[in-house]
Amino acid sequence: MHAQQIERKKMMSLKHLRAPTAGQRRPSPLLRLVPGLLLLLLISRPAQASASTVVTRLPGFDGPLPFHLETGYVGVEEETGTELFYYLVESERSPGADPVLLWLTGGPRCSGFSAFAFEVGPVKFVLAPYDGDLPQLVYNPLSWTKMASIIFLDSPVSSGFSYARDPKGRDDVGDYSSSLQVQRFLNKWFIDHPQYLSNPFYIGGDSYAGKVVPLIAQYVSEGIEKRQQPHINLKGYLVGNPMTDPKFDRNFQVQAAHGFGIISDQIYEAAMRNCKGDYVNHVNQMCAEVLQTVKSLISEILDAHILYKKCVFSAPKPTNDATARKYMLEESIELNEAPGRPAIDCLTYGYYLSYFWMNNNMTRDALGVKQGTVDEWVRCKRELPYKFDMPSSIPYHLNLTMRGYRALVYSGDHDLQVPQLSTQAWIRSLNFPIVNDWRAWHLDGQAAGFTMGYANNLTFATVKGGGHIAPEYRPEECFVMAERWLANEPL
């Protein structure tokens, strides 16, 4: 039988295996127009290039999932055996027409599951005291999958369930190399999912992911222009409280701390007088001393959201918790250390629950995690080496917007890690004309934040009451903001 006929027969079989749920699934992807070159690549690519699992139920979630979930691996580097793990949630509205988002979590090396369960994804944890039973999940009615299909990616390698067979692949990674791996991931992923090629495509992320998002978008754009990859329908990108350039990100923390009432007028004036506008490089001893005072005062509050209580973070460095270890389920893998237990009224309590849920074998089996690849899932693996080798992402913001790509830059306005003052400052440095003056944007008749529109399709918005990861603190406001922006409507 001809090779294409064989492949077509395989795809028709897959169609029956992935039967549509009412109102959610579109016609078989191969019935849509697929360029001949992509079909040839699909047939000839190595069998190990990707592996996927359709997930219909999750442990701790009552009943079948009310959304289409696919998980899988995509190989991005043969030499080191690097494979990136992803979660695809198809749009619950109109998957054939709605945008597709690639969503990255910050850190670096925080799992894409963090966004899946705590930020913009379709589930959330029931915040009940952990007693050794499997934590429970419920549906999130404010999931951005109401309006878009989202790929939640564990990147860079060793985030979440992404792995490299060679330790060099895990340790020798940085801004540029990880962004190139994401580009390779997208190339292979779209070859495997050609039904999404015509959908508007956006790349998004918060915090440190916001620094590499423009770089990844640049790589994708260049690949499209050089015809080195599938013709992805890249439309733009969105970043929240994004790390961008230290001379902006860190340099405005002093001003923000003064504005929030964390440091006094006298301390602020001493900082201005002795540091001469440079709060990143200590220009003299007096500057260093006053900045140490500022740092000490900031340590009294939660810099991710100045109004929230300080809590055990339960992500970067797990600590011993004998009680938690005692009650670990028999189905769980052998764990090194359970994370520190925050108070149940802490925002981070869900992070704590996720550790036990993810390290349960029932969960791993349901998600299709390869045995022997990741011994212990930790939400953020910040102890691993990482090369912070891109000094600034501003040139990529400039290049992308000048070439017509849409950009939404938003800031939770109670964040002191990357204050909205710093984000406004680097945006001003682009010298784009203002096309829509500063104004409030609204939800239910109330100001939900403030926004300004610039030339070259760049929109800046604040989220009132939001913190460093704005959708965690203000999910409804962020949902409405994203819905309007993706629909090309004014905020």
Automatic annotation (TrEMBL):
InterPro entries found in the cross-reference section: AB_hydrolase_fold, Peptidase_S10, Ser_caboxypep_his_AS
Entry GO MF terms: acyltransferase activity, transferring groups other than amino-acyl groups; serine-type carboxypeptidase activity
GO biological process: proteolysis; secondary metabolic process
One Pfam short name: Peptidase_S10
Annotated transmembrane regions: none
Range of residues in the leader sequence: 1-49
Keywords: Glycoprotein, Signal, Zymogen
Family: Belongs to the peptidase S10 family.
Protein's name in the database: Serine carboxypeptidase-like 18
Native organism: Triticum urartu
Source lineage: Eukaryota, Viridiplantae, Streptophyta, Embryophyta, Tracheophyta
Gene name, Swiss-Prot/TrEMBL: LOC125524150
